[in-house]
């Protein structure tokens, strides 16, 4: 191997293209010049770069917001680099305080195991599983032991740790900070040492932890990794970041019809950010589509295309087509082809009790509220009488735009 190709590799068109892929939609690439050198060296030597993404299995399901970084991993994977999907089974025992003003309760080993079992299966809907290295950080973290942990802790100062925004803000406010929380960024950084990472990805809220990896790699005599942060995706409300706790999310294991309809519910403005971060269309294709909309094309056409792309990724093209047809049927007041069949007894039965028993309303009071709001239909007719009793028979009952049941009452 020509040593000059290693130390001063040429910046080819392929390297420039790889840099453009890296920068698409990203918040920061630190330091960009080092990443270009790594890409050029990889191109010259044929040795893939090692690209790491760590996720703590704090919940059993992944939502579309999580796939922003997974999409970037897939784009880099398609360029021929080695991606490492790291499950933080050890760091989950500590609890990451990033972006929080209180300590996150650590999970039990049993919770972590249950959640981790579904993570990789779901991530494989985005990543190519045949080309993905899956690792668990307990592999090298547990053998460290007390001596290794003390030695690791000696490589970073308390003053530097307190520069982290959430620690600084909590200390200033007099809020408690537990000593074990200092271990989290150290352990995440040590993951990069153990994996000899060239690039680590994460959300903008992970920047401090990602930079810790660079620092510790230098401490251990390794070439420091570069870091690439991706924006946090706003959820369906267009305001808060996508989160299950805010109920503004799309789970990637949701059924195709719900997924399609939820994408269509986002605003026309938010749609373009979703295109940039979630679509695999080229930036040129997205720009052309946006120009068509600005020239007068209905923005719904672009939103339908995005909804079909996302739904097809997690289901299939056929499921996306069927979801589109289901949405059209519902928007016209039609009944979807496949709706739950429910058998009830007790005719004549009050409409409130029927809605609750059929699983269309969580309670009688909520059923009354839905009726007051005009959100309940029986055989396509709006129900306005909360005292309505239904005789024996079969009815198509609808709540809102998406909930249907064919109820047979005896």
UniProtKB/TrEMBL annotation:
Motif 'KMSKS' region mapped to chain: 241-245
Localization (cell): Cytoplasm
A Pfam family annotated for this UniProt entry: tRNA-synt_1b
Motif 'HIGH' region, chain ranges: 57-66
E.C. no: 6.1.1.1
MF-aspect GO terms: tyrosine-tRNA ligase activity
Binding-site list for ATP: 244
The keyword Transcription regulation is annotated on this UniProt entry: no
KW DNA-binding (keyword) present: no
All residue ranges annotated as the RNA-binding S4 domain in the record: 354-393
Top EC class of this enzyme: ligase
Keywords: Aminoacyl-tRNA synthetase, ATP-binding, Cytoplasm, Ligase, Nucleotide-binding, Protein biosynthesis, RNA-binding
Substrates-to-products reaction catalysed: tRNA(Tyr) + L-tyrosine + ATP = L-tyrosyl-tRNA(Tyr) + AMP + diphosphate + H(+)
Cited InterPro entries: aa-tRNA-synth_I_CS, aa-tRNA-synth_Ic, Rossmann-like_a/b/a_fold, S4_RNA-bd, S4_RNA-bd_sf, Tyr-tRNA-ligase, Tyr-tRNA-ligase_bac-type, Tyr-tRNA-ligase_bac_2
Summary of the function given for this chain in its UniProt record: Catalyzes the attachment of tyrosine to tRNA(Tyr) in a two-step reaction: tyrosine is first activated by ATP to form Tyr-AMP and then transferred to the acceptor end of tRNA(Tyr).
The family this protein is said to belong to: Belongs to the class-I aminoacyl-tRNA synthetase family. TyrS type 2 subfamily.
Oligomer status and interactors: Homodimer.
Protein name: Tyrosine--tRNA ligase
């Amino acid at each position: 191997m020509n040593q000059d190709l290693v130390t001063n590799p040429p910046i080819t068109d392929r390297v420039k293209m790889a840099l453009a892929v890296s920068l698409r939609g990203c918040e920061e690439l630190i330091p960009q010049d080092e990443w270009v050198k790594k890409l050029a060296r990889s191109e010259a030597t044929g040795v893939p770069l090692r690209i790491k993404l760590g996720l703590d299995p704090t919940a059993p399901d992944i939502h579309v917001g999580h796939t922003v970084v997974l999409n970037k991993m897939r784009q880099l994977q398609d360029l021929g680099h080695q991606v490492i999907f790291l499950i933080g089974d050890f760091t989950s025992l500590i609890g990451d305080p990033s972006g929080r003003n209180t300590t996150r309760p650590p999970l039990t080993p049993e919770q972590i195991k249950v959640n981790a079992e579904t993570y990789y299966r779901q991530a494989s809907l985005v990543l190519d599983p045949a080309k993905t290295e899956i690792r668990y950080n307990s592999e090298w973290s547990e053998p460290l032991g007390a001596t290794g942990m003390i030695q690791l802790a000696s490589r970073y100062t308390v003053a530097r740790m307190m520069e982290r925004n959430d620690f600084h803000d909590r200390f200033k406010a007099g809020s408690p900070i537990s000593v074990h929380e200092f271990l989290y960024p150290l352990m995440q950084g040590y993951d990069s040492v153990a994996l000899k990472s060239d690039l680590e990805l994460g959300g903008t809220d992970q920047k401090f932890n990602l930079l810790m990896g660079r620092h510790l790699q230098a401490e251990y005599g390794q070439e420091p990794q570069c870091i690439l942060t991706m924006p946090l995706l706003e959820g369906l409300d267009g305001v808060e970041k996508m989160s299950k706790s805010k109920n503004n999310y799309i789970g990637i294991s949701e059924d195709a019809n719900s997924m399609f309809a939820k994408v269509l519910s986002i605003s026309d403005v938010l749609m373009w950010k979703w295109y940039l971060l979630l679509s695999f269309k080229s930036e040129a294709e997205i720009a052309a589509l946006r120009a068509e909309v600005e020239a007068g094309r209905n923005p719904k056409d672009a939103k339908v295309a995005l909804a079909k792309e996302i739904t097809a990724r997690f289901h299939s093209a056929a499921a996306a087509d069927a979801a589109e047809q289901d949405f059209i049927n519902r928007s016209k007041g039609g009944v979807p082809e496949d709706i739950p069949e429910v058998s009830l007894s007790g005719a004549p039965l009050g409409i409130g009790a029927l809605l609750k028993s059929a699983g269309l309303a969580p309670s009688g009071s909520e059923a009354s509220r839905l009726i007051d709001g005009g959100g309940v239909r029986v055989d396509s007719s709006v129900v306005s009488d909360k005292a309505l009793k239904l005789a024996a028979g079969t009815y198509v009952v609808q709540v809102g735009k998406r909930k249907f049941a064919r109820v047979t009452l005896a």
